[in-house]
Each structure stands twice: as C-alpha cells, then as structure tokens.
Design goal:
Membrane topology: Multi-pass membrane protein
Pfam families: LysE
Order of helices and strands: HHHHHHHHH
Keywords: Cell membrane, Membrane, Transmembrane, Transmembrane helix
Number of domains: 1
Number of strands: 0
Mean pLDDT: 78
Largest sheet: none
InterPro entries: LeuE-type
Number of helices: 9
Structural class: mainly alpha
Transmembrane segments: 12-36, 48-70, 76-94, 115-137, 149-167, 187-204
Length: 205
C-alpha cells in the first residue's frame, strides 16, 4: 500500500503541471479576466470571476460525464453551440475593447457573474483542455477517486490562476490611467481574446 501511494505522487505532480500549462495559459477567459481587471478594477470584476468559475465547473462536468461528446455527435447542434459561443466572446471582446476610462461608477458597463458564466460555459479552449486532462492521464488510483482527484486539481488550477490573471490586470490598470493608454490596453486585450478563440479551434481538430 505505501508503495502504491508513493507511485501516485509523480503522476499527481505531472498532472498538476499539465493542468497549469493547459488551463492557466492565455485563453478567452483568462484574458477577459485580465482585461476586466484592467478596465474596471479588482472589486468591480469579482462577480465576473465567480461567474467564469461556475461556468468552467459546468464545462468540466459536461466533459467528465461524456455529455460534451454526445452533444457533438449531433453536427447541427454542435455548430449552433459553437456559433453562439463565438458570437458571445466577440461581443464581450467588443465591450471590453470599447470600455471608456471609469468616471461615472454607476453608468459604466461592467461584466457581471452572468457574463462570466456564459463565457466559462462557452470557452472552447477549456473543453479541449478538460478533455485532454480528464481523458489522457492516469493517476493509478481507483476510478472514482481518480476522476474526483483530477477534477479537484483542475478546479484549483482554474480558481488560483484565474484570480492571478484578474489581479495582474487590476495592477496593470494603475500603469494605464491616461485615457489614450487605457484605450490601447483595452483594445489589445480584445484582440488577444479574439486571437485565442481562433487558436482554440486548432486544439479541437
């Protein structure tokens, strides 16, 4: 039994490293969090962060239970869901890219938990990453514990590193208070969000 437990540790470490590489790397959600932090600040972006986390939990559950594969066995439905997710991410990128410097706290559009939830559920990169992590790695434990352990590690990675992206964006905001630089920062984040959506589709091929 001790030998079995010891053999699990290298597998856990490898899985954790792979999870960080796939889930913490730039993507629509992470860049949207950084952009929200830069455009609206840490406090105003908290609900957006919570929404994205909840959406990613749903996405992970769809992959873990096989429902994601079932949905994509119907080409028309899969295409419709893909179009909806892409259009939504493009809309969110547009709102971030055109966000003005905050002067009137009540009138500025701020992505809430609903916007974050939809972004988390519609995140193409997340589905590809969850499918690779949950389906390609073996930890050497019982089936029930293995899936639960991998899901917990993925969730922890998403929460910790998404928060770090949000925090990094909020710190960046202090460097770009000037309206001109604020505009350039927001537009740059929006372009990067669109680029990562296009890149995400290469992961699913």
């Amino acid at each position: 039994m001790p030998d079995t437990a010891l053999s699990v540790y290298p597998a856990l470490f490898t899985f954790a490293v792979a999870a960080i590489a796939l889930l913490a790397s730039p993507g629509p959600a992470t860049l949207a969090l950084a952009a929200s932090g830069a455009a609206y600040g840490m406090r105003r972006s908290t609900r957006f962060f919570v929404g994205i986390t909840l959406g990613l939990v749903i996405a992970m559950a769809l992959v873990a239970t096989g429902l994601y594969v079932v949905l994509h066995s119907f080409p028309v439905l899969a295409t419709a869901l893909t179009v909806i997710s892409v259009v939504y991410i493009l809309w969110l990128a547009y709102r971030i890219g055109t966000a003005p410097p905050i002067r009137d706290e009540q009138s500025v559009f701020t992505p809430g938990w609903g916007a974050g939830f939809v972004l988390g559920v519609a995140n193409v990169k997340a589905y590809a990453a969850f499918a690779a992590l949950l389906g390609s790695f073996t930890l050497g434990t019982t089936a029930a514990w293995e899936q639960a352990t991998k899901a917990l590690i993925c969730l922890l990675v998403c929460v910790v590193f998404d928060f770090l992206w949000l925090y990094a964006g909020s710190r960046m905001r202090k460097l770009f208070i000037h309206p001109t630089w604020n505009r350039r920062l927001n537009v740059s984040f929006a372009i990067l969000m669109i680029a990562t959506v296009a890149w995400s589709f290469t992961l699913t091929q």
